[in-house]
Amino acid sequence: MSARTFFPQERTIPVGELASMTGAELSDPGLSETSIRGVAPLSRAVAGEVTFALSRRNTAELSATRASAVFCSKAMAVAVPRGTAALLTPHPHNCFAKAALALYPTAAQPGPMTNATGISERAVVDETAVLEADVVVEPFAIVGAGAQIGRGSRIGPGAVVGPGVTLGRNCVVAATACVQYALVGNDVVLHPGVRIGQDGFGYVPGPSGMEKIIQVGRVIIQDSVEIGANTTIDRGAIDDTVIGEGTKIDNLVQIGHNVRVGRHCVIVSQVGIAGSANIGNQVMIGGAAKINGHLSVGDGAQIAALSGVASDVPAGARWGGVPARPMRAFLRDAAEINARAFGRDKNRDKGDE
């Protein structure tokens, strides 16, 4: 495994400590003092690294691994090579994620781009802005009039915190991100290029063309939200756009004005949510899915990737397709379409003969 140039080793952790912090069972206590210094995929891991095996499909790779430790289920423990510590758990991937975070804590969020401490002389901070202790403002960042930034937060180079914005404690606004017309909670991470609070898309046909609808609402982002690079979240028109606590949003997502996203949702890359949609709590939306405006997606619902949602989705439902419908119906329809297409191809091939 090549050296991790951008995330160098910070510490080593004994296997026994990894077991304790993740809740995994160490199959051979005699290996508890084995030192772990890094992570790697199952097929490329070497001595000193920890890896994981998800299912029986990984059995061949598991039996050949050179890792010092591996998270796996009890059923797969028989395939773990002699001398490799088996960390037994029904949730190998989750445990591996905890271990990786402990080994590489600086990789959990965008890191600083400079060695700046406090407010850089090359940043622009309005004299009416209020910054608590231990705030870092890197070069070329801008903090507008009346903005408030909580203790321990960091504003990256070229980032903008607009006038009147409130940013909570221990937040990261990464390089070139822009936050306007927003109230942001604690422990929020905004990756590079994020755009929060820009004008929503609102027009109405008039006698001389399209007339603009004013957008005078806010964006409210609750605690522990993470928003991926180049995602855009429009401010409300006359209401607020809201992102609920603990929600994780991938790169390149578009969320329109007045949208309300609940708590602990997962929204994957290239999703588009049109204005005034209401997304419940713990909703999962797959990549490139599209949600029409003014509809509701109930708590716990799952939307498959590439779906087009054009009607309300009940709580707990699993929908997919275009237009999106219950997953069973979507899979049945897809199977019928494939069968008909395959049948036509077979008949055409026979005709060619």
Describe the protein.
It is a single chain. With 353 residues, the chain is α/β, with parallel strands linked by helices. It folds into 2 domains: 13-108, Udp-n-acetylmuramoylalanyl-d-glutamate--2,6- Diaminopimelate Ligase, Chain: A, domain 1 (3-Layer(aba) Sandwich), CATH 3.40.1390.10; 124-328, 3 Solenoid (UDP N-Acetylglucosamine Acyltransferase, domain 1), CATH 2.160.10.10. The protein has 4 helices and 39 strands. The strands form 6 sheets. It has an 11-stranded mixed sheet, covered by helices on one side. It has a 10-stranded parallel sheet with strand order 8-11-14-17-20-25-28-31-34-37, with no helix packed on it. Strands 9-12-15-18-23-26-29-32-35 form a 9-stranded parallel sheet, with no helix packed on it. 37% of the residues are buried.
Set out the fold topology.
Layout: E1 13-14, H1 15-22, E2 25-26, E3 35-36, E4 38-39, E5 49-52, H2 59-64, E6 69-72, E7 85-88, H3 92-103, E8 124-125, E9 130-131, E10 136-137, E11 142-143, E12 148-149, E13 154-155, E14 160-161, E15 166-167, E16 172-173, E17 178-179, E18 182-184, E19 189-190, E20 195-196, E21 203-206, E22 209-212, E23 219-221, E24 226-227, E25 232-233, E26 241-243, E27 248-249, E28 254-255, E29 260-261, E30 266-267, E31 272-273, E32 278-279, E33 284-285, E34 290-291, E35 296-297, E36 302-303, E37 308-309, E38 318-320, E39 325-326, H4 327-352
Parallel strand pairs: 4-5, 5-6, 6-7, 8-11, 9-12, 10-13, 11-14, 12-15, 13-16, 14-17, 15-18, 16-19, 17-20, 18-23, 19-24, 20-25, 23-26, 24-27, 25-28, 26-29, 27-30, 28-31, 29-32, 30-33, 31-34, 32-35, 33-36, 34-37, 36-38
Antiparallel strand pairs: 1-3, 2-7, 21-22, 38-39
